[in-house]
Amino acid sequence: MTADPVQFVTYCGSKANRVVPVKTTRSVGPNDCLVEVTHSGYCATDTYFTAVPMGLGHEGVGVIRRVGPAVKQHKVGDRVGWGFVHEACFNCKQCLSGGEIYCLKRKIYGFGNLDQGSLATHAIWDENFLFPIPDAMSSSVAAPLMCAGASVFGSLQQRGYKSTDRCGVVGIGGLGHLAIQFAHKMGMEVVAFSTTEAKRAEATAFGADEFVVIPREPGTRLSGIRRIDHLLICSTAQPDYHLFLDILEPRATIYPLTAFEKDVTYPHLDLIFSGVTIQGTMIATKQGFIDMLKFCVQHNIKPANQEYPMTVAGIEACNTDLKAGTMRYRGVLVAEGADRSSETAIEPEANTKAEAEAEPETVTEITVVVDGEKNGTNGTNGTNGANGKAEV
Ligand SMILES: NC(=O)c1ccc[n+]([C@@H]2O[C@H](COP(=O)([O-])OP(=O)(O)OC[C@H]3O[C@@H](n4cnc5c(N)ncnc54)[C@H](OP(=O)(O)O)[C@@H]3O)[C@@H](O)[C@H]2O)c1
Ligand SMILES: [Zn+2]
Ligand SMILES: [Zn+2]
């Protein structure tokens, strides 16, 4: 049974670049589940959207409180998680060949379902993009796996690796510290590349066999490093690709996960002569999520979390720590015990109106046009072209 509509609170960005509690009113559709959010990880991608009036967060975990009449995969009381992709058509070439995350009718974070996110009291999602959390895994451990974990695991799994390969991980943050653990447990030798010498001991504990401080002086080359087969770029700033091409095995693969950054220039001739692949990837497929969760339980892979209360103050503190570079290694917002007594949720129109009036504190390159949200696509479908601007 559904008793619509449902009202809950979603923590949204705002033009003033502050987190605002906003009332969300939604129906539980036939294939939907109402989830009470208990935990949410906080990804660097969220920092790009805090100046946009939309629901924040895409590393959610919670408990199903209501299901639509056609829901088959879940039941009330189940613990589930979700990530970057919310919907797909399941009837197109991509969907029918296991590439539903690349469906041209998909809805993804920041480009569809803008009225809700994982930083919230509740959310309503299509059952197809809710993933059962294994009993042996805590919800706090599961949350960062919903984007950070799934993105790095999915990259390696979708493109293939051998346990005799060498895997480089550039940038040891939320994605990077999980990438080291995955690659190590997949049997690969792992080389961590970091701008922060102080992360050496922890990177080694995560499973890195070698730790290299990325040289900052222009013209410096990397040397004395055995060649690498897979290079996961997990840094928030684009690295110098010239530097890394020097130490790649011919026919190696680069996975440039860094999002919403300026375009990069690759040394074109080096690519041709070395047969290196630059492989775009975005999160894990549905099957990839299931495999990842199983793999984490089997190999005791866990994110290193810093917890904050799921409140405006907690989210803003988490955002500040992440941007300051002091996060070790993933912020997780926790609903239980969070004191929201001083928070008053506003109507969505008030946040949009405030947007029109506020002076932006931070300039963001991302433009989200809510009007077009009905179909969730903009022709480029969240792949927003060379100028870094997107319309939905
Ligand atoms: N494609 C996808 O599917 C996908 C999914 C999720 C996230 N992302 C993107 O992946 C990136 C990483 O996300 P995250 O949540 O892991 O971020 P994060 O926790 O902030 O980690 C990023 C790491 O990058 C390094 N770094 C920070 N500032 C840097 C700078 N100015 N120059 C060079 N390195 C710097 C730091 O590592 P060191 O101290 O070790 O250098 C930092 O810990 C973001 O751009 C995010 O938007 C992409
Ligand atoms: Zn993310
Ligand atoms: Zn499709």
From TrEMBL:
Cross-referenced CDD domains: CAD1 (cd05283)
Listed Pfam families: ADH_N (PF08240), ADH_zinc_N (PF00107)
Cofactor annotation: Zn(2+)
Keywords, sorted A to Z: Metal-binding, Oxidoreductase, Zinc
InterPro entries associated with the record: ADH-like_C, ADH-like_N, ADH_Zn_CS, CAD-like, ER, GroES-like_sf, NAD(P)-bd_dom_sf
Acetylation found in the keyword field: no
Domain Enoyl reductase (ER): 13-333
Superkingdom of the source species: Eukaryota
Low complexity composition bias: residue spans: 363-392
Region (Disordered): 340-392
Similarity remark: Belongs to the zinc-containing alcohol dehydrogenase family.
Record's protein name: Enoyl reductase (ER) domain-containing protein
Origin organism lineage: Eukaryota, Fungi, Dikarya, Ascomycota, Pezizomycotina
